[in-house]
Design brief:
288 residues; Serine Threonine Protein Phosphatase 5, Tetratricopeptide repeat; mainly alpha; elongated
């Protein structure tokens, strides 16, 4: 009878099992398995295996343990990579420890590693949330200098940060110029700014942005669109409200009845009956 070969776990097997334990929150069991791998089976871990533990501890609010793992790596001849430092930075940022995240970022550069888009975006996001927009903008400029391409997520983070500080003009400039520079912006990019403009009562800028969105094939969020229409009506801006409504309807948007009635009532009060009839025609067509 032929005996089957016994299969022993290798580095990939151990790493996969550790990852599963970390994902389940069983961090100490993952560490025990790591120690078994090294001591019993004498398998040397690589940076990817270490990253399973670094990411596991960072995501579970135990970033100090994650930092010790990187120190352990250095002592045992395994050089940390960009992913290890990015996971550590993410852990610090989640705990609001921005200075330590920045120190990890600078240490990564000091030892010759080139931060990637994820690393930059993680730190930029934390600066934005802390209200440190100048530092965030400096990092964005550094990305450009280092030829590290910022993606849609990066720009949305920056745009949101600018809006939170009321720097709407800068946010709008980015929306206008970035697509011309080959940067892809998504629906969220525009919605972020539009939501803030409506919230702050910047109706003129909101109408301008809405027109830009529609011209580029993006439709704003249903609730935001209705809020803008109502605010324009309440401010007595008949022409702007009518233009916005017709533009939205052409893109397939169906406003709430309250938005229609507000605008029709406002137009009638200003004795502009032709636009009122045109709006009613649109409403009838949409209901058919």
């Amino acid at each position: 009878m032929k005996m089957s070969k016994i299969s022993y776990p290798n580095l990939i097997t151990y790493s996969t099992m550790m990852d599963g334990l970390c994902a389940s929150g069983k961090l100490e069991e993952a560490v025990d398995l790591f120690e078994e791998m090294v001591s019993k089976d004498q398998i040397l871990p690589d940076a990817l295996t270490y990253n399973v533990l670094i990411n596991g501890f960072s995501c579970r609010g135990k970033v100090d343990r994650a930092k010790k793992i990187i120190e352990f790596m250095n002592k045992n001849g395994c050089n940390p990579n960009v992913f290890n430092y990015s996971a550590l930075m993410n852990g610090f940022c989640k705990e609001g420890r921005l200075q330590e995240a920045n120190e990890a970022f600078n240490e990564m550069k000091r030892i010759g590693l080139k931060p990637d888009t994820v690393g930059y975006t993680t730190l930029i996001d934390s600066f934005c949330k802390a209200g440190k927009m100048d530092e965030a903008m400096e990092l964005l400029e550094e990305m450009k200098e280092k030829e590290c391409r910022a993606d849609t997520v990066t720009f949305n983070v920056v745009i949101g940060g600018l809006c939170r500080q009321g720097r709407f003009e800068e946010a709008l400039r980015m929306l206008y110029k970035l697509p011309n520079e080959g940067v892809y912006l998504n629906k969220a990019s525009y919605r972020i700014v539009l939501n803030f403009l409506c919230k702050e009562g910047e109706l003129g800028k909101a109408v301008e942005l809405l027109c830009l969105m529609l011209s580029r094939g993006f439709v704003p969020h249903f609730a935001t669109s209705n809020e803008l229409l109502v605010r324009l009506c309440e401010a007595g801006k008949v022409a702007d409200a009518a233009m916005v409504l017709f533009g939205l309807v052409e893109m397939g948007f169906k406003p709430e009845p309250d938005s229609w009635s507000l605008l029709v009532d406002l137009i009638c009060r200003e004795r502009k009956l032709l636009p009122a009839f045109e709006l009613l025609d649109e409403l009838v067509l949409m209901e058919q």
